[in-house]
Amino acid sequence: MRKLAVTLVVLVALTAIATASRYLFGTEFMPYHAAVAGSAWRDIDPRMQVLVLAMMKVMGAGNIAVATALLLFAWQAAKGVAWAGWAALAVGACLWVPTLYATFAARAANPNAQTPAAMTALALSLLAIAAALLWLDTRRRQP
Q1: CA distance 48 to 31
Q2: Residue 107 pLDDT
Q3: Selection from 40, 35, 63 nearest residue 55 by Cα
């Protein structure tokens, strides 16, 4: 159980790093942003472009921070530290619960916007499964 849980946490961390790279190195907003805005990037006021890119960089940095924490928690979980799974879930939830809200808000504004709601929910679900597996593993090992 522990190996599976650690694998899930590492998988979510790697996904967060991939997401971070898209947001940190992107030079224009994502296709779902364009769908919600109802405009192409080139039609957005340059001052607004600066704000959008700044928010994207913050999102990318948040993903890097969470990924770093998840990798540290995975390392602790691999050693059998009981709290590591719950810590991974808590830290992931701090980023991805508000992100999930934002994706639902964007989709409400334009139902055709292909927001990353499913991937965000999947990341949270995998962390919850990992936390539960680590909890069960800890209980199983107790005398």
Answers
A1: 16
A2: 94
A3: 63
In angstroms, rounded to a whole number, what is the distance separating the alpha carbons of residues 35 and 97?
A: 22
Q: What is the mean pLDDT of the chain?
A: 95
Q: Is 39 helix (H, G, I), strand (E, B) or coil?
A: coil
Q: What is the pTM of this model?
A: 0.91
Give the position of tokens 């080139």: 42
Give yes or no for a contact between 55 and 22, defined as CB atoms under 8 angstroms apart. no
Predicted pLDDT at 139: 84
Task: Dump pLDDT digits (tens) for 40-81.
Answer: 999 999 999 999 999 999 999 999 999 999 999 999 999 999
CA–CA gap between residue 96 and residue 85 (Å, rounded): 16
